[in-house]
Amino acid sequence: MPGDTLIIGLVQHDCAEDTSTNLDRSLAGIAEAAAAGAELVLLPELHRSRYFCQQEEASRFDLAEAIPGPTSRALADAARRRGVVVVGSLFEKRAPGLCHNTAVVLDRDGSMAGSYRKMHIPDDPGYHEKFYFTPGDQGFQPIDTSLGRLGVLVCWDQWFPEAARLMALAGAEVLLYPTAIGWAEEDERAERERQQEAWLTVQRAHAVANGLHVAACNRHGFEPDSGGDGILFWGSSFIAGPQGEILARAPDDTDCVLLATVDRRRSEQVRRVWPYLRDRRIDHYAPLLRLYRDRTDLT
């Protein structure tokens, strides 16, 4: 049975054009985290390649692979050899023309504990993911592992409180977010600070609102765009406690294996005095199922 503490390791690294180089960096990070005592290791979103969604290019579908496939098998082997649970985000080829952004969870014996297909798919300047990824069809279901029940979500999901809440209601013990987010080249310093602070704040709010630990692992470094200026990914991977307190945070611009020991008992302690789940008025939340409430609907 899992103990009272859990050591979480985040592997933050930049991504080169060569996919083998990136996988080697991820595997080296897993080994380093495990050697430092990590039991659960989280990798950045789409860590096998550069962030190809900056442009819509059909040739980029060549990066997609089946699950199980080469990358998931490599992660499974690392999980087994190091005795850790590994969470990594892959470009899943489910069928020709049908692909997902999928996080796989490999248990400590190398077995596939489960997967989560990214539900919220952005289509914004520099983030053209709807061209590549079909929205997930598994819902918001935590994944049971030998270390407990993990609420795995992916990047854009981290901006939606509904996703975090549904994972919490299904018994997730920690929320995990593989991430790829950064600044556009034209963003001024003040705008960059606002964006990064918003990113940190919304996820810390998920921790507070659900009484859970949250971990987000981002890539770092500048990645050029064949049709524009590129993205400077801001790193800053972090682990927060169930009151939103930052337990550990990585730098903006360097490779880093970040570790934090979390006390599993904290969720129970916090929820007893901040009982948000108890006081939810589910009898009045039906309008949340609407896309928008028009003025004529406010009855």
**Percent in helix:** 10-25%
Unreliably modeled segments: none
**Number of folding domains?**
1
Structure summary, number of beta strands? 17
What's the story with the biggest beta sheet? 6 strands, mixed
Mean pLDDT: 96
Residue fraction in strands: 25-35%
Order of helices and strands: EHEHEEEEEEEHEEHEEEEEEH
Cα end-to-end separation: 49 Å
Instruction: Give the second-level CATH assignment, the architecture.
Output: 4-Layer Sandwich
CATH superfamily: Carbon-nitrogen hydrolase
What is the CA-based Rg, rounded?
19 Å
What name does the CATH topology carry?
Nitrilase/N-carbamoyl-D-aminoacid amidohydrolase
Give the CATH class: Alpha Beta
Largest beta sheet: strand ordering:
5-4-3-2-1-17
What does this entry look like structurally?
This protein is α+β, with helices and mostly antiparallel strands and 299 residues long. The chain has a single domain, classed as Nitrilase/N-carbamoyl-D-aminoacid amidohydrolase (4-Layer Sandwich), CATH 3.60.110.10. 23% of the residues lie in helices and 29% in strands. The chain is built from five helices and 17 strands. It has helices at residues 19-35, 70-82, 161-169, 189-210, 265-273; strands at 5-12, 40-42, 85-95, 98-106, 112-117, 123-124, 127-128, 143-145, 148-152, 174-179, 182-184, 213-218, 220-223, 231-234, 238-240, 246-249, 256-263. The strands form four sheets. Strands 5-4-3-2-1-17 form a six-stranded mixed beta sheet. The chain has a six-stranded mixed beta sheet with strand order 8-9-10-12-15-16, with helices on one face. A hairpin with a 2-residue loop joins strand 3 (85-95) and strand 4 (98-106). Helix 1 packs parallel to helix 2 (70-82). The N and C termini lie far apart (49 Å). The model has no long low-confidence stretch (mean pLDDT 96).
